[in-house]
Amino acid sequence: MKDNQNAVLVFKAISDDLGDKDPYVKVLADKGFTVQTIPVLEFKFKNLIVLKEKLDRPDRYGGLILSNPRCVQAVADAVGGADELPDEWRELPVFAVGETTARQAKDLLNICTTTSGNVATLTTMIVQKRSLNPLLLPTGNIQLDTMDRLLTKQGVATDMVEVYTTVPHPQIEENLQAALEVCVPHYVVYFSPSGVHSSFPILKEVVDVKETKWISIGPTTGAAIESHGLKVSASASKPTPDCLAEAIASCAPRVSGNRFVL
After folding, report:
1. Do residues 131 and 65 lie in contact, with contact meaning Cβ atoms separated by under 8 Å?
2. What phi-psi label fits residue 110: left (phi over 0), alpha (psi between -120 and 50 degrees) or beta?
3. Cβ neighbours of residue 159 under 8 Å, at least 6 residues apart?
């Protein structure tokens, strides 16, 4: 087991883990980092028949909110693909949280979206385009954002349907141990509180907790890191590959060739 000053260990959901095609891995590798990803969660879809019934009646809605890639996948699975989605949805406002969600909406549903990586900003955009009809809002069993509450306060009605359940990845400990055998990371990146709580009991026995750089995606994940007595070294301003690379580079040593430096 070796220590590597440019090694990054990324904890993220399995549905977002695209291997060599993962844009986060590609951007960090281009900056000279060595990246390993550990899936921390799995997603099991549910209520797709209910969702399809709602999607078959676009006349009842003022638009659609897609809060993450799982919701896009749920819509695609419910209707059976882009060709089966009623065309009326493409004439209604569709909102997406994050570039990955927007990209998947285009790829799987052939839908263009109004997009922001920030829930509060996207909520403002939604309010500006408010409709008399409710917005269809597919969601998971764990709600970590405040979009529905923010919209309710602004008088915007939503029709929420739970379309997936989040469960811990059954092999997280095994995968983490295997990754640590390859290299002890200098940077640890968390996309969600679940990744923090499931991995830290193992990591603290291996890494130098004080020397390791702990990187969060968003304030909620940062709070989870701090709950273990750790200091958040940097936080990505948006959930994008470039913003994550900037966050890591902000606490990385400057090196020749302009690598690690953005």
Report:
1. no
2. left
3. 54, 61, 134, 135, 136, 137
Bigger pLDDT: 202 vs 110: 110
Specify the 3-state DSSP secondary structure of 151. helix
| Six-digit token string for 115 | 């997009």
Q: Express each pLDDT in 142-177 by its tens digit.
A: 765 578 888 989 999 999 999 998 888 888 888 988
Sheet holding 232-236, edge to edge: 34-39, 7-12, 187-190, 213-217, 232-236
Tell me the angle at which helices 48-55 and 69-79 cross, rounded to the nearest 10 degrees: 80
114 to 105, 125, 161, 205, 245: CA distances (angstroms): 11, 8, 21, 44, 24
Q: CB within 8 A of 107, min separation 6: which ones?
A: none
